[in-house]
Amino acid sequence: MSMMKTTAAVLAVATALAGGLVAAKAQEITLRSADTHPDGYPTVEAVKYMSDVLKKETDGRIAIQVFDSHQLGEEKETIEQTKFGVIDLNRVNFAPMNGIVPETIVPCMPYIFTSKENMREVMDGPIGEDILKAFEPAGYIGLAVYDSGARSFYNSKHPIKTLDDLKGLKFRVIQSDLFVDMVNALGANATPMAYGEVYSGLQTGLIDGAENNWPSYESSKHYEVAKYYSLDQHSQCPEVLMMSKVSWDKLSPEDQKAVRDAAKQSVTKMRELWDAQEEKSRKTVEAAGVEINEVDPAPFIKAMDPIYEKYANTPELKELVKRVRDTQK
Ligand code: GTR
After folding, report:
1. Cβ of 213 below 6 Å from ligand 1
2. What value, to the nearest 5°, has the Cα angle with vertex 94 and ends 172 and 267?
3. Which protein residue has the closest C-alpha to ligand 1 atom 10?
């Protein structure tokens, strides 16, 4: 067992013993929140900001403690623990929720959004609300959607300019069947793997590359071991902040409202931090000598047609895709 896994396991047990949502005094509540990213990353900072808002709104009664840097485990594990109320809040990407809440597939679909603004507009409106509502039957309360930029390929071998360049390369993908099929449809070999294992996977040559946005590529230091970053931007799959329904049900309706409002307020803050971080991360990797190239997305978009057939496979999901497309007319 790796050091990281041991720490995660110990913490998980400690958290389980403490029973999730902690009430120090009857009226004082500290919500535990998980994040895979390090301190300072926009998602981590946004949840800390939410905690400040919540404290203010509840006269200090409710606060959030953020466990960053996957201290509580890799995303898949924390998602399970959140279901059982061992973890109260969890900030994860939509992708590892694809198999649990089918509606989350739609915003992860390849090239579904035409721009960052389009993604924000869709997720702020009724489509985003409907997707967040779909979390509840699965045991989660969808609180807020955060930016995650666009995911692009990086690898240790050569720049990806055409589909041919992807042939024979092995890419780690986020743990979602949709992503496995997307990357395979482009002609590469996809291997789902936990985020925390990617750096060593790249270093040892187990994988040739992975795919992610600027801030993750930079903060994970993957750029040190995979120095070709090719901007095909195949998915703008956003982040979600969700709460365990078990923990949620322990709150009074007033406190639930305060949590929801504070989460919504953190979205604006997150976007400011996100825009600045994308810029900063780009500069950092450029200065480190990363070779960056633009990609003509047309053949990539075409190659993804079967993905829409396979994954927009129910009348509900087809309708959601159509509603997103309608915002682009
Ligand atoms: C990042 C995302 C993380 C995690 C990671 C991954 O963009 O913010 O939550 O899902 O990607 O690739 O595993």
Report:
1. yes
2. 125
3. 93
Check residue 62 and give its pLDDT: 98
239 Cα nearest atom in ligand 1: 8
State pTM to two decimals.
Answer: 0.92
216 C-alpha to ligand 1 centroid (Å): 7
Distances (CA, A) of 120 to 152, 166, 173, 199: 19, 30, 24, 30
- For residue range 287-308, what is the model confidence (pLDDT) as tens digits? 999 999 999 999 999 999 999 9
Task: Report the atom number in ligand 1 closest to the C-alpha of 211.
Answer: 12
pLDDT computed for residue 24 by the predictor: 52
Q: How far apart (Å, rounded) are the C-alpha atoms in residues 175 and 264?
A: 27
**pLDDT (mean) for 73-95:** 98
C-alpha of residue 209 to centroid of ligand 1, in Å: 15
What pLDDT, on the 0 to 100 scale, is given for residue 20?
59
pLDDT at 3 exceeding the cut of 50: no
Residue 215 CA: nearest ligand 1 atom is 7
Q: What separation in Å is there between the alpha carbon of 13 and the centre of ligand 1?
A: 24
Residues 4-38: pLDDT tens digits?
344 444 454 454 445 556 655 546 999 999 999 99
CB contact set of 144 (below 8 Å; sequence gap of 6+)? 132, 240, 241, 263, 264, 266, 267
Rg of the chain over CA atoms, in angstroms? 19
CA dist., res. 234 & res. 232, Å (int): 6
Query: Would you say residue 263 has pLDDT above 70?
Result: yes
Q: How far is CA 220 from CA 166, 200, 226, 235, in A?
A: 23, 11, 11, 19
**Residue nearest to ligand 1 atom 3, measured at CA:** 93
With a 6 A CB cut-off, is 193 part of the ligand 1 pocket?
A: no
Residue with CA closest to ligand 1 atom 13: 195
